[in-house]
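User: Show me a protein chain along with its predicted structure.
Assistant: Here is one chain, sequence first, then C-alpha cells.
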Amino acid sequence: MLLVLDIGNTNIVMGAYEGKKLMKHWRFSTDRQKTGDEYGMLINSLFRYQSIRMTDIHAIIISSVVPPLIVPLVKMCERYFHLRPLVVGPGIRTGIRLHYENPRAIGADRIVNVVGAHEQYGGPLIVIDIGTATTFDVVAENGDFLGGVIAPGIGTSADALFQRAAQLPRIELVPPKNIICRNTIQGMQAGIIFGYVGQIDEIVKRIKREMGGDKPIKVIATGGLARMIMRESSTIDKIDHFLTLTGLRVLYERNAGERTKQEQHD
C-alpha cells in the first residue's frame, strides 16, 4: 500500500491506498512538539486498530506546510517503515506548469490540491481549501496553476475576534437561523459565517469574471468546514474531503518511475 501524509497547520490527514482505491484514512492533530518516535507510535496504534501492519506499506509521500515537522516525520518513516518518503517540494514532478512569480513560495498543499482536482474533475477549476487559511487556486483547462487568493480561515477569524475583543466569548461555528440576531453568540455566528460565505462567493465571482471564456468553471471545495459553508454558498459546486489525499497519490504515481531510477543509481 501507498501511505500519504498531508501535514497541515491544524491537522495531519493520512490515507492508505491500494492502487487508486483509498482503503483507510485518519485525521489527528498537528503537534510541532512531537518527536518522530511519538508520531511513529501514534501511527502504529492507528494501524493496529485497522489491522494494518507497517510492512504492508511499500511507499510513502508527504506534503507539509509546517517545515519543522518534515525532518522528524522523514526520520519516522525511515525508522518505523524502513522507507525513504517522497516529500512534495522543489524538484518534484507535478505534470503542471506553475504560473507564479516565485514557484518555490507556493504551499505544498496548494500544488497537491491542484493536481488532485484536475486529475478528477478536469478544468478549468477553482479549488477552495477551507483550513487555517483559506486558499483559492485557479486551474486552467490543461491543468496549469494560474495563481489564486489567500485569506484567513474561518476558525482563524473567529479566534482573532475572541482574543482581541475582551467581552466576546469563544463560539461554536454553527450558522444561526436568522441574520438579524437577538443575542451576542448568534450575532457573532452570523457575522463570522455569513461574512465568510460572502467573502468566498465574491472572490469566486471575481475570479470567474477575470478568467472569462465560454467554458463553465467548476468550483471544488475541501476542508473540515467545507460542507457547512457549501450549504450557505451560491458558488461552490462540489465538496471533496479527500482531494489532498488524491493529489498526493497522483504525485507519487508521476514520480515513482524517476524515484526508482534514482534509488537504483544510489
